[in-house]
Design brief:
The chain is α/β, with parallel strands linked by helices. It contains 11 helices and 12 strands. Strand 5, helix 5 and strand 6 form a beta-alpha-beta unit. 47% of the residues are buried. This is SDR family oxidoreductase.
Length: 293
């Protein structure tokens, strides 16, 4: 299957491209630069030059491929306004790809975050939140899944707060970056709030399984660790970097501080049983031991 992949050179995208190649698919990766194109071609994938705002490029690539996996997001959390722009950009791109696939029956896999449900681990049956700082992403994913009613085999892989590889990535990666800059490995409150996590290679396997097998309009959880306490994450980071571990105010994390403060464990029992997805790579706390001082 020829698969158009946005975000193909990022942490998750690189793992997805490798997973597709290992299972006989031909990835076509969106590349914004010569360096990104060269990275894709070096591993045996093809490059499609353009960015997430080049809607005509997205439509053409999606229309010519046998399926699409959408991963690209600018990840600009510097301000509420910047985050809103990133979300609007992604929503427009997702819609353009969906329109290009109407009536084809082709698979179209997008991603979102796992929802938080007070008092328990969220499941695949729980709705995404339609309020809060990233609610626009939830609305965009919900709209994309609705293309199932227009002849597109849409599905959504819900990613946990940390998708990691070799000690990098996700919320834990942001905590590491902030700890390097500030000299403190911080956590909000008492640090007992839990974040789900998954290794990027395990997440990539689920994207491939959804592409191949997921029924139209369905959502899946790429969760290995159901919920690691944030203080435990901060303690590993602090030890690896040799910096103190302490409580910090939520506003230290800007527009996503409220998300950082929330308890948000998630389950993947239905995904594992239905799609036969079995994570096999290191869990988060073990993987963080690879952080370089």
């Amino acid at each position: 299957m020829q698969v158009f992949v946005t975000g193909a050179t990022g942490l998750i995208g690189s793992a997805v491209v490798a997973e597709l190649l290992q299972h006989g698919h031909t990835p076509l990766g969106l590349a914004r630069s010569d360096a990104s194109a060269a990275k894709l071609e070096a591993v045996g994938a093809e490059a499609v030059r353009g960015s997430l705002t080049d809607l005509d490029v997205l439509r053409a690539a999606a229309g010519s491929a046998d399926g699409v996996i959408h991963l690209a997001f600018s990840n600009d959390f510097s301000s509420p306004e910047a985050l809103a722009r990133s979300i609007e950009e992604e929503a427009a791109a997702q819609a353009a790809i969906g329109e290009a696939l109407v009536g084809t029956g082709k698979p179209y896999v997008v991603c979102s975050g796992t929802p938080a449900v007070p008092g328990r681990a969220s499941t695949e049956a729980d709705a995404l939140p339609l309020d809060g700082p990233v609610a626009g992403r939830s609305r965009a994913v919900t709209s994309t899944l609705a293309f199932a009613e227009r002849g597109v085999r849409t599905s959504a892989v819900r990613l946990p707060r940390t998708v990691h590889a070799e000690g990098q990535g996700g919320f834990a990666g942001l905590l590491t970056q902030i700890a390097r800059q500030s000299g403190v490995s911080g956590y909000i409150g008492d640090g007992s709030q839990r974040w789900p996590a998954v290794h990027a290679k395990d997440a990539a396997a689920l994207f491939r399984l959804a592409l191949e097998n997921a029924p139209a309009g369905t959502a899946w959880h790429a969760v290995d660790d159901e919920g690691d306490p944030v203080k435990a994450i901060a303690e590993v980071i602090g030890r690896r970097l040799g910096v103190p571990v302490q409580e910090v105010p939520a506003d230290s994390y800007g527009p996503i501080g409220a998300i950082f403060a929330a308890d948000q464990p998630a389950s993947s029992a239905h995904t594992r049983e239905t799609l036969n997805w079995q994570p096999v790579h290191p869990k988060l706390l073990d993987d963080l031991e690879l952080i370089k001082p």
